[in-house]
Design a protein that fits this description.
six-stranded mixed beta sheet
Length: about 180
């Protein structure tokens, strides 16, 4: 079977378009203090408000402390070396709408035209944002480590699994405790 040159070009452009649409995932961004190494053995939570903890807040705290304990760190609310804080900022993603495009062109004595239709298909996250975990050295009251990740959630209230996944990805970049 012999495929014409135009068909090959169209096939190639379609393949490039599909590859461009593929999700590559989001990488964790890490920032560290240049003049201070992370020297923490015992952790506690850095309370930033006297308000009751939301479900999301409770889930992040639980997942973060469990992940740090798996890395060899200890929980010590009374005498911590470092405190943990997090920030989750989200915004709603507008729903995609169907689109129609029309084009015309010509060359070498011929004229052609086309119509394209874009139909959004499949499930998409409805919320997007940034999830950040900060580590603060108690002795100097200064930030010594920060990890952040672009996140997507199915609804305005993230589920326990979505938050655990975000915490796990960010803290995967935090060093394990030397034993």
């Amino acid at each position: 079977m012999n495929i014409s040159h135009k068909a090959q070009v169209i096939f190639g452009l379609c393949a490039i378009a599909l590859a461009a649409c593929a999700s590559s995932g989001s990488a964790v961004r890490v920032d560290k203090a240049e003049d201070k190494a992370v020297d923490c053995e015992r952790f506690a939570w850095l309370s930033q408000t006297n308000e009751p903890a939301s479900f999301a807040d409770q889930r992040v705290r639980s997942a973060t402390l469990a992940e740090l304990q798996n890395k060899g760190y200890a929980l010590s609310p009374e005498n911590p070396d470092c405190r943990i804080a997090y920030l989750l900022s989200t915004h709603e993603i507008p729903k995609a709408k169907p689109r129609v495009g029309v084009g015309a062109g010509g060359g070498s004595g011929g004229v052609g035209g086309g119509i394209g239709v874009s139909l959004p298909i499949g499930r998409r996250d409805q919320q997007a944002g940034t999830f950040t975990i900060d580590i603060v050295d108690v002795s100097t009251n200064s930030q010594v480590w920060s990890g952040s990740l672009d996140v997507g959630f199915a609804s305005a209230e993230p589920t326990e699994d979505e938050l655990k996944d975000a915490v796990r990805k960010v803290l995967a970049e935090f060093p394990d405790r030397q034993k």
